[in-house]
Amino acid sequence: MPVTVTRTTITTTTTSSSGLGSPTIVGSPRALTQPLGLLRLLQLVSTCVAFSLVASVSAWTGSMGNWSMFTWCFCFSVTLIILIVELCGLQARFPLSWRNFPITFACYAALFCLSASIIYPTTYVQFLSHGRTRDHAIAATFFSCIACVAYATEVAWTRARPGEITGYMATVPGLLKVLETFVACIIFAFISDTNLYQHQPALEWCVAVYAICFILAAIAILLNLGECTNVLPIPFPSFLSGLALLSVLLYATALVLWPLYQFDEKYGGQPRRSRDVSCSRSHAYYVCAWDRRLAVAILTAINLLAYVADLVHSARLVFVKV
């Protein structure tokens, strides 16, 4: 959905634009010499180097290593597609909204690379013995950090500013939707062991909250990427405000119930990490049950804050059709 952003107003318009509000010259090799083009080349090179270093020594054993390798390969592939579209001037033929897609991907890629830059060294690299494999893994982590900074810089450069014609995903609420869905995915990864919640209906409710809010936020993102916000039976701004309010209420219950039933002995919780047998020893590629419970509690708080910020910003925005 194309929008013009002012201080408190988002005005729907049909005015054409080169997308992203960047000075990049599209449909020409000169696009690579512009700041945004050079930044995307840095993203392409850093992710390529990261997965190449790891692949050359087969240093991605286990689920955490697989996640990191997937992150770098996925970011490299989509960045390459974006560069090809920009160079060939194929934005009009791209199946998704070009006003929304690049910044949505850049935000996801920044979060993906950030997670890989943290997870890979803490759950894999530190358990490697000194040698060529460890050196390659450390270097890959370094380039992953560079990629993270590069993608975050693109988000900062191309986000919506007052007076610009842009897509909803470039606004603060749009970027918060990306954060909300990403954090939910990390939560799902930590609760993949059903033993963490199946013994208590309250914990099962928390899992339902994570799933419901994720689906609603994902729908909002897909509607914008597909430019089909008009299919909703209610105005899109009302849908966004209602979604944010519902998510805040649901996550507030999860923030209370998850720590209560996971860490309070009165409700069958485990208050101390030392009592968890699975945490008694350090294991490569593995996160023990107590650490998973704590991570989910922290991520629940982070997502609640994100939804509160989303609600505040959505309430302040006014959409006016022209």
Description:
The chain has helices at residues 35-56, 62-88, 101-123, 132-158, 172-190, 201-225, 236-263, 289-316; strands spanning 2-5, 9-12, 165-167, 318-321. With 322 residues, the protein is mainly alpha-helical. Strands 3-1-2-4 form a four-stranded mixed beta sheet. Helix 1 packs antiparallel against helix 2 and helix 6 runs antiparallel to helix 7. It has two domains: 28-162; 171-321, no CATH class. The chain is built from eight helices and four strands, in the order E-E-H-H-H-H-E-H-H-H-H-E.
Question: What are the defining features of this structure?
Answer:
membrane; transmembrane; repeat; about 325 residues; mainly alpha; 2 domains; Myeloid associated differentiation marker; transmembrane helix; four-stranded mixed β-sheet
Largest sheet features: 4 strands, mixed
Strand content: under 5%
H/I helix tally: 8
| Structural class designation | mainly alpha
Give me the count of strands.
4
Strand order of the largest sheet: 3-1-2-4
Helix content: 55-70%
Which term fits the overall shape? Answer: flat
> Gap between N and C termini, in Å?
13 Å
SSE arrangement, N to C = EEHHHHEHHHHE
Q: What value does the Rg take, in angstroms?
A: 21 Å
Low-confidence stretches: 4-24
Number of domains: 2
Please, what is the average pLDDT? 84
